[in-house]
């Protein structure tokens, strides 16, 4: 079982789609996606939590991982597997 994963995303963002595919390939069975294009207040919430306004922004448990580049770097270093194993 993987820890809770939350991803701020938009429906048309290719990096959001790539982040979701990467997480699923690592065994994430459920990703709580918050679509900023469907709920405009969520972008303000995202900025308050992270200081960023771009998507995707991924949280694994309570840890803000960052965007797709950050997630990909964690995967390449092996750290992503460790984070997902802590479920």
Summed up, what is this model?
This protein has 87 residues and is of the alpha+beta class.
What's the Cα radius of gyration? 12 Å
Number of helices: 4
Choose one word for the global shape: globular
Mean pLDDT: 95
Alpha-beta classification: alpha+beta
- In the CATH hierarchy, the architecture is 3-Layer(aba) Sandwich
The total number of structural domains is 1
How much of the sequence lies in strands comes to 15-25%
CA distance, first residue to last residue: 5 Å
CATH topology: Glutaredoxin
What does this entry look like structurally?
This protein is an alpha+beta fold and 87 residues long. It contains four helices and four strands, in the order βαβαββαα. It has a four-stranded mixed sheet, sandwiched between helices. The mean pLDDT is 95.
Secondary structure blueprint with pairings:
Elements: E1 5-9, H1 14-25, E2 31-35, H2 41-50, E3 57-60, E4 63-66, H3 68-77, H4 79-85
Parallel strand pairs: 1-2
Antiparallel strand pairs: 1-3, 3-4
Descriptive labels:
87 residues, alpha+beta, Glutaredoxin, 21% strand, globular
């Amino acid at each position: 079982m993987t820890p809770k994963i939350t991803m701020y995303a938009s429906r048309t963002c290719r990096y959001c789609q790539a982040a979701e595919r990467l997480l699923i390939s690592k065994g994430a069975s459920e990703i709580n996606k918050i679509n900023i294009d469907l709920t405009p207040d969520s972008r303000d919430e995202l900025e308050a939590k992270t200081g960023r306004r771009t998507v995707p922004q991924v949280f694994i448990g309570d840890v803000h991982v960052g965007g797709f580049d950050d997630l990909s770097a964690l995967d390449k270093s092996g750290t992503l597997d460790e984070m997902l194993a802590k479920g």
